[in-house]
Amino acid sequence: MSQVPLSHILIVSTALFFIGMYGLFTRRNMITMLMSVELILNSVNINFVAFNKYLYPAQLEGVFFTLFIIAIAAAEAAVAIAIFINLYRNFHSIDVEGTGEMKF
Amino acid sequence: MPNYAYIVLIPLLPLAGFVVLGLFGRRYFRRFSGIIGTALGLVAAGLALWVAYGYFFDWGKLNGAYRPIIATDVPWLTFSSGLSIDMSIVLDPISVMMIVVVTFVSLMVHIFSLGYMKGEERFATYYAFLGLFTFSMLGLVLSGNLFETYIFWELVGCSSFLLIGYYYDRPTAVAAAKKAFIVTRFADLGFLIGILILSFHAETLDIRTLIHRLAEPGPQLTSITTASFLGISALSWGLILVFVGGAGKSALFPLHIWLPDAMEGPTPVSALIHAATMVVAGVYLVARLYPVYVYAGPAVLQVVLYVGAVSAFLAAIIACTQTDIKRVLAYSTMSQIGYMMFALGTWRPDGEAAGLGYTASMFHLFTHAFFKALLFLCAGVIIHRVHSNEMKDMGGLRKLLPLTHICFLVGCLAIAGIPPFSGFFSKEDILLAAWHANKLVYGIGLFTSGLTAFYMFKLYFSIFWGRPVQDAGGHHGEAPMTLKIPLVILALGAIFAGWVPFSRLVTYNGLPQESHGIGVFAIAPVTLAIIGVLIAGYLYRRESGRPARAAAAMGGLYRVAYHKFYIDEVYSFITKKIIFNFIGRPAAWIDRNIVDGLMNLLATVIARISAGIKGVQSGRVQDYVLYFFAGIAGLAVLFIYIYT
Q: What is the ipTM of this complex?
């Protein structure tokens, strides 16, 4: 079984990244925006793992870095959800359009 | 080598009094604070007398000459190996003489104040301030480092300020305190610059080393005499500026304007600070640096000579016309300090009179401290009794105040220079020195001594003779014992201080001089003094129209002198009309329009810019995301550009 070439994996991660970005820009719902951020983070994870595996198979730094990113993503999700709850209490919605008064 | 460390106690005891009374006096021992202060003063005076006795008669001499002794020397601020500010105590004839005068007069004033200030609200504070003053003055006279002198110099000015403004609920006292502080501060600036010039070139602040380097040929002397500004060498500038500082503190013309106003303070304070001790600090300062003055040549000493002579003369004329007894005494103080100053200016490099002026000046300082303190304390008793400073409220007091009458008479005779009272001897020496140096100044001095006798006896006759005033009542007897004792002691001092063989003790080079005999030379001043006394008696002994007629005959001169030669008016014209209008107002305009304007401009510009860019912070999360990614993209492009 021939190995999947690195470029394929990079295409997947790039696609994932831009899908995430698209979601981040177009969605108005905070939860979907958070999901988009997670997509971006995962695209980065894939890159790390792929580069580690293909370029430096003897080392493990890329994999460890991925683990850190997953942990940070979890923490970030917790913080983001706390923000959503507060937002909902104040505006009765988690739509980002409603937060326009948090300016200047 | 004996141990001199105990000498530190002399200034430190009054300091302890200041700290204890200042911190706890008002709360814990209000009634005893006077006793505490006086007891400390007594110990200090005893120690000072003991030191003086030892110095002059026991251990002070080396090979027949009085040598300076460094009792303590504590390095305090060391800038470099040569330049440091030390807290040192130096004993030499003039400093030993001064500590005796300062502690003795201070003790008398402490005792006098026990009765005079009794029942005052801030009794303990008063004694605390007296302690502070005594400490600073002793520190000033004992210091062996020029900067240390300056520190104590300012402390003395500060305690003088505090005591002039003692009655701080009187606007005149507050104004007088401010005036004294500002005028002397102005002069002290000169002193500071003078110190900096001298120490910069001499590369030391230690007075002995400084004298050694600037009064003998050497690299430092070459440096200071070659450097010049406006055609005058740096040495002369430094010495003149130091003299300006001394002139401010010693109330010499034209910086004397604060002294008469300083009489707003309590009378014992006037006796201590503004008659006997602090105001002679300027004379003392010049005497301290005297070898440098002498070596610098006659020009600077000529300044000292003429400023002193003019002050002595002007003050005597003004004193003739004043009606407030304390002001008369203040002007007479100024006049006597003028005497001391011009005596210092009479150095002659040759002949028998060399150094005569120095001894005479210090001698007059010594005797003046006694009789002027005596006169002020007598004035204190009189004011205590009649509750007024004005001569017109007094008269015929010799029956009411017999002891004060005698003491005041002694003081007047001493200051007028009638033998055998103390002022005669010292004034005689000064006039002799002036005779050898400068005939014009001798003439001024001679005439001034006649005037002195006149105005002092005018004061005496107006107060104690003439029509008796109504007794203000409420008092029994003349005065309490605490007021009488200092009077008697000081009167004895005023009588006998002249018999101290001063020319053997305090001389320019430390070697005893032969005291010259009192001969025909004394005839002229004594005759003039007696004439002055007789004129005063003729005019003021009985109530008559004579003084008014005499004043009318003098016409303009009397009026001008009565208004103190309009010097105060000149000062207020200069400050209010010229400095305020031509410097103050433009400065205020610049401050308001240019300095403030720049700040306002800056604020406005920043407000505008922030108003312009604050729209970026729109509150829409997706805008922020956009900026974020744009920023990252921008950075990515930048890095790619840099690293490839």
A: 0.82
